[in-house]
């Protein structure tokens, strides 16, 4: 609001300057001294008001960007995992980068646009005070110019919207290049094909649309500006032939209209930004981030007591995004996890083990069947708390560069780092990790270190030991797993290591999404 007031006041002071210039052409010398003093004050007022208004605007635009980004991050954190997985990281990053910028840009220009609208209206009032018929004629001509400009904008829009879609594809391919750089470096033909047949065509398609849209926009903008000069030409050369008007009035008109081109430009120039913001908002909406509040999972606040967890007749299906046909179906599955138990989930690749782990941990909501905690059904309202029961290490899990959400003292940190053989990867003073040059196995060990320090009742490991050397597999299955299950905590581990099935109380096996066996183990090793 302050920005609108200061911006509007500076515009009005500027308009005051124009009227003073106009009056100076018609006043006597004595009055000119007074006008000169007023002119000096008006200049000072413009300077102060514009500087203050710009400072306010900068702060406003930065705080808007920060708020918007934070809000979007919160929505991402609250959105259901399957919807985020369907978006893919390239689209989410694109939204957090480009779309937030586009919306911020439009929002932060809004106060300036309001201030300019105030100036424009005041200018029109001043013009009407000089000559009402001329003012009406000017408004009609300006409206025609603006209408044709809006037509061009609408046309440009179509191409710019398409370009926004294409940009997602380019971002996806750039991500593939960054993450697949080793594969590209090692195979020159693959690299050339990727560059010329994948990346370049995607980028070219996007740029062609962008160029087309921007060209149309530029032409519309130029036409919008020119139409004002055509209007001034009509006023000066044509109007006086049909309607008597003094040369002072015409001069006042020309000066004022020339000045008003700047606020009008700013308002018309804002429309493309508004349009981009609209495209971005639709994009965010299409990604499912404008989530239905009823679908948002409330953040869990406390870790519930653990007496039993069970899946009862649970089914879940992935669907193809285009046809809504099931691409993979898991279940129906019944599963029970008791305190202190070690449960292994085995099965071939693609049999549904990770999907089952995501259902168990509440990251996916079953299509059918129920999730029960302590024999009570976990409904939507309880899901947030239910998720706090688990500490997980997934195959593609992310490792933050420090301990977050865990109260661990340096002694515990040192002890686990030493068991896991990664003392040199941890800064015990700050609790930060040295993630720079980690091998895959060390990365997994750090992830396990974080899990071991977490005081939650159920550990879920997805093929944790797959990248460990034989010696450390022994340590994991024979020492770490038993230690973790002391004090009534449970371990659910997806594993292909059938040599170590003896370490489990129970092994369940999945084949094509169905549980084919569930057998008791735990024989003396
Ligand atoms: N987000 C997803 N969207 C669609 N389909 C998926 C998704 N995640 C997994 N799938 C499909 O579901 C099936 C089961 O996948 P899942 O990851 O659960 O198997 P898995 O038993 O853990 O396999 P692996 O041993 O190879 O890790 C696979 O056919 C996979 O292609």
Q: What are its keywords?
A:
Rossmann fold; binds adenosine-5'-triphosphate; four-stranded antiparallel beta sheet; 525 residues; single chain; alpha/beta
Task: Kindly describe this structure.
The structure is a single chain. The chain has 525 residues and is an alpha/beta fold. It is 62% helix and 13% strand. Helix 2 (29-78) packs antiparallel against helix 4 and helix 11 packs antiparallel against helix 12 (440-453). It is elongated and about 105 Å long. Bound molecules: adenosine-5'-triphosphate (ATP). Residues 85, 318, 327-328, 347, 349-355 line the site of adenosine-5'-triphosphate. Adenosine-5'-triphosphate (ATP) binds at residues 85, 318, 327-328, 347, 349-355.
- Radius of gyration using CA atoms only: 34 Å
- Describe the largest sheet: 6 strands, mixed
CATH H-tier superfamily of the domain at 309-520: P-loop containing nucleotide triphosphate hydrolases
Shape: elongated
Low-confidence runs: none
Helix-strand category: alpha/beta
SSE ordering: HHHHHHHHEEEHEEHEHEEHEHEEE
What CATH first level of the domain at 309-520 would be assigned? Alpha Beta
How many helices? The count is: 13
Number of strands: 12
Helix content: 55-70%
In CATH, the architecture of the domain at 309-520 is 3-Layer(aba) Sandwich
At the fold tier of CATH, the topology name of the domain at 309-520 is Rossmann fold
- Give the termini distance in whole angstroms: 74 Å
Pfam family, one: ABC_tran
InterPro entries: AAA+_ATPase, ABC1_TM_dom, ABC1_TM_sf, ABC_transporter-like_ATP-bd, Cyc_pep_transpt_SyrD/YojI, ECF_ABC_transporter_ATP-bd, P-loop_NTPase
Domain ABC transporter: 309-525
Keywords: ATP-binding, Membrane, Nucleotide-binding, Transmembrane, Transmembrane helix, Transport
